[in-house]
Amino acid sequence: MHLVTNLKSDLVHILKAWIKINQKQKRNTEAKAVKEKRIMKKLTISSKDINAKQWSNLILELNLIKKQWKPFAELKIEAPGIKKIISWGTQNYDSRVDQKD
């Protein structure tokens, strides 16, 4: 009788542990599903009366915002000539090659 009682209590402990593990796995899969259901948000900025200097400054400021927001969200900026604007706008004088040499 004592052996049967021990087996029952062991079985109860095993079942409780198994239930805990399954509940934890279920919470993890639910959290992953919530992350996957994130909706992409899109913003469009347009202007007809912006000159080239203002445009490049706007792009550089948006790039700074993108860098600051990196820990919180993945931002993507798309614009014509953006790579060239950012590369020229973020260069240090020391990193430029002297044209005279």
Provide an overview of this structure.
- The protein has two domains: 1-38; 39-91, no CATH class.
- It has three helices and no strands.
- The chain has helices spanning 2-36, 52-69, 82-89.
- The model has no long low-confidence stretch (mean pLDDT 82).
Largest sheet: none
Low-confidence runs of at least 5 consecutive residues: none
- Topology as H/E string? HHH
Rounded to the nearest angstrom, the distance between the terminal CA atoms is 97 Å
Structural class: mainly alpha
Strand fraction? under 5%
Number of domains: 2
Shape: rod-shaped
What's the rounded overall pLDDT mean? 82
The helix content is: 55-70%
**What is the C-alpha radius of gyration, as a whole number of Å?**
29 Å
Count of runs of 4 or more consecutive helical residues: 3
Q: Based on DSSP secondary structure assignment, what is the total number of beta strands? A: 0
Search tags:
mainly alpha, 2 domains, 0% strand, single chain, 101 residues
Please provide a brief summary of the model.
This protein has 101 residues and is mostly helical. It is built from 3 helices and no strands. It folds into 2 domains: 1-38; 39-91, no CATH class.
SSE inventory with pairings:
Elements: H1 2-36, H2 52-69, H3 82-89
